[in-house]
Structure formats: C-alpha cells, structure tokens
Amino acid sequence: MIKSAQTFSYLFGYLPFAAKNLAKFKKQKDKLSASEYSRLIHSEPQKWAGGIMKRTGSKVTVTGLENLPEGPVLFVSNHEGNFDIPVLLSSIPKPFGFISKKEVNKLPIIPSYMEEMNCVFLDRTDRRSAFKSITDTIDKLKAGHSVLIFPEGTRSKGNGLQEFKSGFMRIAKDAQVPIVPIAIEGTSRIMENNNNRIHSAAVTVQVLEPISTQEFSEAGAKAAQLVRSRIEQALGSLPSN
C-alpha cells in the first residue's frame, strides 16, 4: 500500500509543475527545429516517468539502445502491463509518441503533453476512429516523428505473448519507416499480478535490431509474424523463461 500511495501521489502531484513547464516549452517552439522541440517536450515525460518508476522501487534493465537508428521509426512492443509506457518513456532516449485510448483525454495536463508528443488517440468502439488512428500515425511518421504501437491491443498481464493485429504493417509500409521491435518483460509484476497494488519488480527492456522497409516488404503477409517472432524469441532468451 505504501508504494501505491507514493506512486500515485507523485503521478498526480507532479502535474502542476509539468503544466508550468509545458507553457514554457510552447513559447520556445517557434525558435527550435522540430527535432529540438521533440527532445525538449520528451524531457518532461521522461523525467516524470522516471520518478514514477523510482517510487515503485523497480529495477529496469535496458539493452540494445545502440540499435536505435536516426530518423523516425515505428516502435512495435509487446504489451504486458499498465507500467509499459512509464518504463519505455524513462528508458528510451529517442522521443516518441504513442497510440492511446481516448479515455486518457479525461485526465488533467497529460493529454496536452501527449498532443505535443505527437500521440494519437483511439476510440476502440468506433471503426472510423480506428481507421483515422492509422492515417494519423502515418502522417506523424511522415512528418519525422517516431511512434510506439502495441499490436496486441490489450495487456497480456504476463500471460504470454498474444497475437499481433497486422494494421501496424500498413503504417510502416505507407510511412516508409523502419520498425524497431521492443521486448518488455516484468511490468505486470508491478501492478496487475498484485490485485492492482504496486510492488517493486525486475523489468527488462530489449530494443531489437530494426527491420527495414525492404525486409518487411519482402516478408509480405508474414511480416507481422516476423516482428512478433523476434519479440517472442527475445522474451524467450531471458533467464526467467
């Protein structure tokens, strides 16, 4: 209970400071290049996410950062738990937005940052919204922004890798950007496996080698399975598995 209270107190207690900094950042937007502004905006969520993870008492081990290429990429990660986003924001130095359910818009401050981070909001109950989220993500990537997607669509809660929805392949193909697979393990042990109470856990993040546009184009209909199998192989290589 103590870790839960500390984590959620920090999560929402930090927001007024984040709001002030966002106002400062926006004033600098016209003076900075797109990449400079992305790094500036990313610095605040990265700091916030790092503070959250510190208060959970978890240890995050990251490997493969040398695999991060220059330019926009589509990050494709498995989705284990609610702490996947804080873990990845605090661990990946390359600025990125992500696809999020529209309910997040009800939170204070956070949606404003997400818009500046080039996140995409999705209404899962509306097919038109799902289609628009794909086109919006393609546009973000074409504009030079990296985006993270969880093709499982829902959290596995540590119960094994689920099937990947293939829509992300169209996004990468149309945007002509490489895919960077990410294998994340251990986040479900922070919250989901503890009756939603926060416990410390060992978390691993593996940034895998990029898959080029040529490689997944040649894979054709098997491209989604190619990405999934690489993540599955990385997860299977961990000692706990």
SSE order and pairing:
Layout: H1 2-13, H2 15-28, H3 34-56, E1 59-63, E2 74-77, H4 84-91, E3 97-101, H5 110-116, E4 120-122, H6 127-142, E5 147-149, H7 167-175, E6 179-185, E7 202-207, H8 213-219, H9 223-236
Parallel strand pairs: 1-7, 2-5, 2-6, 3-4, 3-5
Antiparallel strand pairs: 6-7
Helix pairs in contact: 1-3, 2-3, 3-4, 6-7
Give a quick account of the main beta sheet: strands, pairing sense, barrel closure.
7 strands, mixed
Number of helices: 9
Question: In terms of structural class, how would the helical and strand content be classed?
Answer: alpha/beta
For the largest beta sheet, what order do the strands appear in spatially? 1-7-6-2-5-3-4
**What is the typical, i.e. mean, pLDDT?**
90
Shape: globular
Features:
globular, transferase, 7 strands, Glycerol-3-phosphate (1)-acyltransferase, alpha/beta, phospholipid metabolism, AGP_acyltrans, lipid metabolism, phospholipid biosynthesis
Structure commentary:
The protein is an alpha/beta fold and 241 residues long. It has a single domain (2-236), classed as Glycerol-3-phosphate (1)-acyltransferase (3-Layer(aba) Sandwich). The protein is globular and about 50 Å long. A 7-stranded mixed sheet has the order 1-7-6-2-5-3-4, with helices on both faces. The two termini are 29 Å apart. The protein contains 9 helices and 7 strands, in the order αααββαβαβαβαββαα. The mean pLDDT is 90. α2 runs antiparallel to α3 and α6 packs parallel to α7 (167-175). Residues 73-187 form the Phospholipid/glycerol acyltransferase domain. Keywords: Acyltransferase, Lipid biosynthesis, Lipid metabolism, Phospholipid biosynthesis, Phospholipid metabolism, Transferase. Its EC number is 2.3.1.51. Belongs to the 1-acyl-sn-glycerol-3-phosphate acyltransferase family. This is 1-acyl-sn-glycerol-3-phosphate acyltransferase.
